[in-house]
Specification:
heterodimer, A: alpha/beta, Rossmann fold, eight-stranded mixed sheet, 14 helices, 8 strands, 14% strand, B: mainly alpha, 0% strand, flat
């Protein structure tokens, strides 16, 4: 595994921890490249013919595929290994964080002040967030393990790097690379003074933006205190000036008409149907006239063949991504309309790895994330 | 593992099972964890061998302090991926028996047959 770029907050691995993380990474690459693809011939040669034989027709949607595919031994074996690999990510990461946590907490408290950090201990953590530890990350993103805790951020930083098999780049900022490259291409003349990133976790994306655009004022919010403490200290170490605050993107304390750009990076699928509408309403409220809303998230179900649709939803059922199920079928253009964006100012687009630098693994794999744009 | 703070799940939820007998899911998790530890031991042995080659003696601190350079990392990556390929030979073989039929011949033949009914 190519090492993550160093910064002062990154938990350091000992000899065996590094080796264990290398194994989990390579195991997951093997699963993705060698085992997962076997689901396709399994379906077309074994599962589908049996379905057609029994019913005299093909499955009409991904839900019907689920009923039969989950009984196939190849799919079962791949799934059991995939689930284990997810658990092994955290198992390979938590030891080094536990060992260094007091030191990391202390370092975060003494971090710089190019940006800032404001926490709100009274903030109610939304139910969609507490319902399950997202991606099985122990302690989720919001629970404090100690005083002035940064554990969730430290676990997240290493864990998501292995989860993505390095696909977010050695700066863990690939999604920021994508949105910024896309934005500059779509809106070359748009001047930015003030930008907000919603659901920032450790600020992987927003810090990249801030590094590239040092004259712009960047704000970033999340509901999780430990990821924000870590994110702030990480940003300071990497030289990105970002103002972090603990807020729910559904209802922020920012003034009306106060941002030129509001972004999020894979936030929506972690929230509920109602929350997504609220996030779009809030984006509209805080944008200046002419300001741009840009939410990047995971693919939706529309137009996806039944097998691909089913396989893409594996994480919903098996990796605590329950709320992604709601996003899969939502009409985000309608959500924009209801939020107040005019029809001609709503643009469902997509952006992908072509905007990532060449050094990033999978930079040329062509994967595209949907981006929903609304201009106020 | 640390004696101090333990980072624990808050709400992990019910673990899904994929096989009819959940014991098989548990066995798979155990096998995968053992595979990981075997890989860790292999890297550790490799470190010891390299240190002995170079110095003829070693201490535990030498082992902990050892970090592979790019050449060593490349060698280990090749070896680790060969190891993983050996571990999953049985899965690859099943996939290979299915792949030659991936042109959907059987499926298309069945659809033709149905269409003629």
């Amino acid at each position: 595994m190519i090492p993550l770029d160093q910064h002062t907050m990154l938990a350091q691995t000992n000899h065996d921890e590094e080796s264990r993380q290398d194994f989990v990474n390579d195991f997951r690459v093997h699963l993705a490249s060698q085992v997962f693809p076997g689901n396709f011939p399994t379906y077309f040669n074994r599962v589908l013919p049996q379905f057609v034989k029994n019913k005299g027709r093909e499955p009409t949607d991904r839900h019907e595929v689920r009923k039969v595919m989950t009984k196939d031994p190849y799919y079962q074996m791949w799934s059991a290994m995939q689930r284990s690999s997810q658990e092994m990510i955290w198992d390979s990461v938590v030891d080094s964080v536990e060992r260094q946590l007091p030191e990391l907490n202390a370092k975060a408290k003494q971090s710089g002040n190019k940006g800032s950090l404001i926490l709100d201990p009274d903030l109610e953590i939304p139910k969609y967030h507490t319902a399950a530890d997202i991606h099985l990350q122990p302690g989720a993103y919001h629970s404090d393990q100690s005083d002035d805790d940064v554990a969730a951020g430290a676990v997240y930083d290493r864990g998501t790097y292995i989860y993505s098999m390095g696909g977010l780049g050695t700066g863990n900022n690939g999604l920021g690379q994508i949105t910024q490259g896309f934005f500059k291409n779509e809106f070359p003349d748009k001047e930015l003074e003030r930008v907000l990133d919603m659901g920032c976790t450790i600020g992987g994306s927003v810090v990249y933006w801030a590094q590239q655009m040092p004259d712009v004022e960047f704000h970033a919010i999340d509901v999780g205190a430990p990821v924000l403490r870590y994110g702030h200290a990480r940003a300071e170490s990497l030289g990105g000036a970002v103002h972090f605050s603990q807020q729910n993107a559904e209802c922020t304390n920012f003034e009306d008409n106060s941002f030129d750009l509001v972004t999020s990076h894979i936030l929506l699928h972690e929230t509920s149907r109602t929350a997504i509408q609220n996030v779009f309403n809030e984006s509209y409220r805080i944008l200046k006239p002419g300001g741009i809303m840009m939410h990047l998230d995971l693919p939706q179900a529309h137009g996806t063949p039944p097998l691909e649709g089913f396989l893409f939803e594996w994480e919903i059922y098996n990796n605590n991504e329950h709320f992604y199920a709601q996003l899969r079928d939502m009409d985000l253009v309608e959500v924009c309309r209801k939020a107040g964006f005019k029809e001609e100012n709503i643009h469902p687009k997509s952006a992908g790895s072509i905007w990532m630098d060449d050094k990033t693994p999978y930079a040329d794999d062509g994967f595209e994330f949907p981006i929903i744009i609304g201009i106020k | 593992m640390s004696d101090g703070i333990k980072i624990t799940p808050v709400n992990r939820g019910k673990r899904p099972t994929f096989f009819d007998d959940p014991a098989i899911d548990q066995l798979m998790a155990i096998v995968m964890a053992m595979s990981a530890e075997m890989s860790v031991v292999y890297d550790r042995v490799d470190t010891i061998e390299r240190l002995l080659d170079k110095k003829g003696t070693l201490s535990r601190d030498d082992i902990e302090a050892f970090r592979p350079d790019q050449d060593v990392e490349d060698e280990r990556n090749v070896r680790r991926n060969e190891y993983i390929a050996r571990l999953f030979r049985i899965i690859r073989e099943e996939r290979e028996t299915l792949t030659p039929h991936d042109k959907m011949d059987e499926y298309n033949a069945l659809m033709d047959e149905l269409a003629q009914k």
